[in-house]
Amino acid sequence: MLAKNTTIAxxxxxxxxxxxxxxxxxxxxxxKPLDAAAASAGGEGGEQLxxxxxxxxxxxxxxxxxxxxxxxxxxxxxxxxxxxxxxxxTAGVVHSSVGTNGFMGGVGDSLCLTGxxxxxxxxxxNVGVEARYRLKMSSIAVAADAGGFSGHATDxxxxxxxxxxxxxxxxxxxxxxxxxxxxxxxxxxxxxxxGGGSATLNHDFLSVPGTVLYTLNPMxxxxxxxxxxxxxxxxxxxxxxxISVGAFYKVSxxxxxxxxxxxxxxxxxxxGGTDARSITLGGNYAF
Length: 287
What we know:
This protein has about 290 residues and is mostly beta strands. Helices cover about 10% and strands about 50% of the residues.
């Protein structure tokens, strides 16, 4: 099974280079961060974690499930739209897992296309609004972000509040990013069970993604990501450590595309392993 997954990852990376996968819209930036807002930010050396004032960036991700017994169940499209309110403040409408908790490899996040019989509980789900404020510009760039998210976009159930930060260190071809965040459940924390008692429906989560990027040349950057996704209730059974590998390629100063292969539950408190797999194909366009 591991050999099969390694082959899939190799094919994905090969397709990335052939199809000119993702990069950063700023033609002067040396590295291409995975972070949704930072991926299109300006600034010398690509260190800025917010967009320049008046700049608009559309990120879109095609998420394909490759898990055993559930290939292409589901397939979804998740767009994120970011706007530079000022040079220090960026605001966005978010649908993707990258925008929500910082991790690549999510499936069924928003516009779920394959129907209820193929892994889509709803057509349109998981929507949020988020704002980021730049705190520091130096060898380590730091920004704070906060937002609100709903797991059911049409009826605003499963409401969460997000409080987090993004940090980025960059030297030469190497960049390291961390984006810790706490997602606090506001509604639907408990539901009554038919036979009596109650169960937690909406959980508090700590999300700590970490990403390493290495720039091969001004057009191509390789990336690896892992981290911890931890529910604050029943943490021993609910934690997951995902891993993703991918690459970025700059098509032009405005248009970029991306792809990554992910094992979303490589290590987990329950049900870990390589059976859960996904491919994320993405791109962004800067206006």
